[in-house]
Amino acid sequence: MSKDLHSTMDPTKMGIGRSIAVLTSGGDAQGMNAAVRATVRVGIYTGAKVFFVHEGYQGLVDGGDHIRPATWESVSMMLQLGGTVIGSARCKDFRSREGRMKAACNLVKLGITNLCVIGGDGSLTGANQFRTEWSSLLADLVSAGKITQEEAKKSSHLNIVGMVGSIDNDFCGTDMTIGTDSALHRIIEVVDAITTTAQSHQRTFILEVMGRHCGYLALASALACGADWVFIPEMPPDEGWEDHLCRRLTDQRARGSRLNVIIVAEGAIARDGQLITSDQIKKLVTDRLGFDTRTTILGHVQRGGTPSAFDRILGSRMGVEAVMALLEATPDTPACVVSLSGNQAVRLPLMECVQVTKDVTAAMGSGRFDEALKLRGKSFENNWNTYKLLAHINPPDVKSNINVAVMNIGAPCAGMNAAVRAAVKMGIIQGHSMFAVHDGFDGLAHGQIEPINWTGVSGWTGKGGSILGTKRTLPGKHLEKISENIAKFNIHALIIIGGFEAYVGGLELVQAREKYEEMCIPMVVIPATVSNNVPGSDFSIGADTALNTITSTCDRIKQSAAGTKRRVFIVETMGGYCGYLATMAGLAAGADAAYIYEEKFNIKDLEANVEHLVEKMKTTVKRGLILRNENCNANYTTDFIFNLYSEEGKGIFDCRKNILGHMQQGGTPTPFDRNFATKMGAKSIIWLTSKLKECYRHGRIFANTPDSACVLGMRKRALTFQPLADLKADTDFEHRIPKTQWWLKIRPIMKILAKYDIKLDTSEHADMEHVLGKRGGHK
């Protein structure tokens, strides 16, 4: 598939004369509906006919009313629903050749030769087998007189594309499967609720989460809540773990902790392959330690509830990519699965992924656990290593005599505390003395600096806002005092956690190195802001939490609009000049338009949007949702847009407006923000430790090279350190945003899903990759 082919093809004509069927199979997962909705709408956008297959493969075999044409409106209001609206079933019939013949016959009769399957590895393996046998199934159908030679010729080849919907995240080759993030939301909601009751009674809680062959949910939730112990199938505990576990729980209590949390994957095993059950652990803790112990088995709660913003965006992006992959496929293209790596959409050969997934199970089965962990991919391995380091205090006997200060800058956001906690704990593990700076650069100038220890940050991962306190003051005016305090408290390295102010403040400190020798220490900026506008990183801590807050508010607003009919809501979001929140919330909530600063708009565009809504009110979907970034245009304010829509919509629809305000900065951090912050905090300390060794000369620290002051950011597929000075060229300082922003490329998807007739730039679409050696990932 060459890039030229992509760019010359008109995407609105790619599907003319083609038919696509979409089905969901296997266990349900939140976000499947977003994928179905995107597949249907993008399919229709390309000119193809789209069919729903109800009840998974069973519907394919039974045919008749189970395979129905899908319309644009038939997928409306699906986005916020959990599960799968078109139904899923475990299907025995499809496992037999006879069943697959019936399925092939049903598809041929309807002229469907493109199949989009959303399910786990079993469902996708079944799809691949179906495709491999297609020619022979058709030959048998012709000889049995079920279809004509002509029909067989028309449907001579079947294209298959898979999307992985599974809450376990057990599919190799993809960072995140559809549903995993939402399942983590359910688990963490429960952990947060249980934590409060456990603390009241000084209890030990054992939580059993799903994951028969994969410990991802257990591991990610243990990382997100700072659990005392986690049991996963990929990495069984060492011999004598019972003594170790009891020691650790006793230690935690001795340090003043009022609760213990142990997380167990349902498939957890010991080194000898025997299951480790929650009852077994409960008996051990009760008998040996006499602790009041309770067990909670989460079960199907994890599959339920509304999909998170991440899963809706993932499902929508995958749906678009799946349609493109189907329409670009040739008889020689291997069946592929579309997935996400970092924030990149990728296509991977289906059977390669299935093979690696099977290899993991085989490695676990024969006791090759280190290999199983490696096959799960880099992201899984990073989670495991970070968890192991932070789970329990094991400080070295020798102190490093290094003092590291941690501070928060700018507006508060969810996840800041998790980053501080990880940095403090990792610093102590490295033998450093850790200092907390209160109230940002103000505090650094006025000496609000104090030592912080291991127990001082316990329980911080799940707390919103900024416990250290944060201010927007920049250091420029206080350089004299700041340098005095760096010397007074003997600070050798600095971690600055915050938004655009943290970046600018870091730059000011670097510029001050010429005058103040005290500033010649290694520094790292960790991006944390709801606006996601820090140069050098695709994501900021706190943006995911804000996005979920906006999305769930929009869900409620849409529900109210659906009740009153013919109503359009105009919602103003935060973000400064950065349109990330408005765009992503628009995609996650199914908005009709999202106005942002980065994409200039004029009165003609506003007029087109109003006309679009007037047309929409003639359909069965009688409601509208418009998002507006707070600074998208100085003259087209939220009031102006509200007045314009109210006037132009008179007699057709009425308008309401909502300004979401500071609720977007509050709330408890989402699992993504907790884990992202934890990994960033830990990684920043490891980097600083190696930088300090480089900068140690003649008995003191001296760092004045550009690469000794960096932003730690997520770039495509990896966490990287980039010198603050190098990022200046890519920064619009007036509007406080990076000049290049990756998410602008996915704005057209939002417009297409809202039925705008625009051109989708398919030149950005992913070519086929290979699964091994490709798996970095941000989750």
TrEMBL record:
Oligomeric state and interaction partners are given as: Homo- and heterotetramers.
Q: What is its main location?
A: cytoplasm
- For this UniProt record, give its keywords in alphabetical order, as a comma-separated list: Acetylation, Allosteric enzyme, ATP-binding, Cytoplasm, Glycolysis, Glycoprotein, Hydroxylation, Kinase, Magnesium, Metal-binding, Nucleotide-binding, Phosphoprotein, Transferase
Q: Which positions bind beta-D-fructose 2,6-bisphosphate?
A: 472, 529-533, 567, 574-576, 630, 656, 662-665, 736
Question: Which InterPro entries does the entry mention?
Answer: 6-Pfructokinase_euk, ATP_PFK, PFK_vert-type, Phosphofructokinase_CS, Phosphofructokinase_dom, PKF_sf
The record's listing under SUPFAM superfamilies reads:
Phosphofructokinase (SSF53784)
Q: Which residues bind ATP?
A: 27, 90-91, 120-123
Q: Looking at the UniProt record for this protein, which Gene Ontology cellular component terms does it annotate, in alphabetical order?
A: 6-phosphofructokinase complex; membrane
| Domain Phosphofructokinase stretches | 20-325, 403-685
Tell me the function of this protein. Answer: Catalyzes the phosphorylation of D-fructose 6-phosphate to fructose 1,6-bisphosphate by ATP, the first committing step of glycolysis.
Q: Where is this region: N-terminal catalytic PFK domain 1?
A: 1-392
Q: Which reactions is this enzyme annotated as catalysing?
A: beta-D-fructose 6-phosphate + ATP = beta-D-fructose 1,6-bisphosphate + ADP + H(+)
Task: Name what cofactor the protein needs.
Answer: Mg(2+)
The opening ranks of the lineage are:
Eukaryota, Metazoa, Chordata, Craniata, Vertebrata
Catalytic residues, chain numbering: 168 (proton acceptor)
Q: What is this protein called?
A: ATP-dependent 6-phosphofructokinase
What family is reported?
Answer: Belongs to the phosphofructokinase type A (PFKA) family. ATP-dependent PFK group I subfamily. Eukaryotic two domain clade "E" sub-subfamily.
Annotated region described as C-terminal regulatory PFK domain 2, given as residue ranges: 403-779
Q: Where in the cell is it found?
A: Cytoplasm
Instruction: Report residues binding Mg(2+).
Output: 121
